[in-house]
């Protein structure tokens, strides 16, 4: 650990924050852990995308469109005078697709947990406001996060 004092700012560097996978909080991203292979994560992500499409999103989308088309054909729902049945069929297809994708999230989370990637709030590859770019948290990282000093401290 080294520290420098210049004016009112103290800069502290920890040994854990010097690696290429270091985050701005001063500890390494656990996905750089040799126990978790990036290829495995990519493989599971691709499987989740494909399986959610073929097993949930596409069947629900086609099913909801078929039910909507049947309701329009029977006269229970009326079709648009200008566009015909297409707007209602499109909305039914989009809603079925979205519900199918959303219904597969739990299965994908279980697959990632089997790899050792912790699933918590903010699960997913997209960092948002207040979220780290790496969601995997191991015991070593929990300890390091609490004991790592801030990179810059105002005095």
UniProtKB/TrEMBL annotation:
Matches recorded under PANTHER family: OCIA DOMAIN-CONTAINING PROTEIN 2 (PTHR13336:SF2), OVARIAN CARCINOMA IMMUNOREACTIVE ANTIGEN (PTHR13336)
Source domain of life: Eukaryota
Residue ranges of domain OCIA in the record: 38-118
GO cellular component assignments: mitochondrial inner membrane
Protein name in UniProt: OCIA domain-containing protein
InterPro entries, per database record: OCAD1/2, OCIA_dom
Lineage of source species: Eukaryota, Metazoa, Chordata, Craniata, Vertebrata
């Amino acid at each position: 650990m080294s520290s420098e004092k210049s004016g009112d700012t103290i800069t502290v560097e920890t040994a854990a924050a010097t690696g290429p996978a270091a985050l701005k909080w001063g500890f390494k991203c656990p996905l750089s852990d040799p126990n978790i292979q990036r290829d495995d994560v990519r493989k599971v992500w691709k499987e989740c995308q494909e399986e959610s499409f073929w097993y949930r999103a596409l069947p629900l989308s086609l099913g909801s469109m078929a039910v909507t088309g049947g309701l329009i054909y029977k006269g229970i729902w009326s079709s648009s005078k200008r566009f015909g049945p297409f707007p209602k069929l499109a909305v039914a297809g989009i809603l079925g697709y979205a519900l199918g994708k959303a219904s597969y999230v739990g299965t994908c989370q279980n697959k990632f947990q089997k790899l050792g990637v912790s699933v918590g709030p903010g699960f997913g590859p997209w960092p948002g406001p207040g979220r780290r770019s790496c969601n995997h948290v191991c015991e070593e990282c929990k300890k390091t996060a609490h004991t790592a000093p801030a990179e810059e401290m105002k005095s």
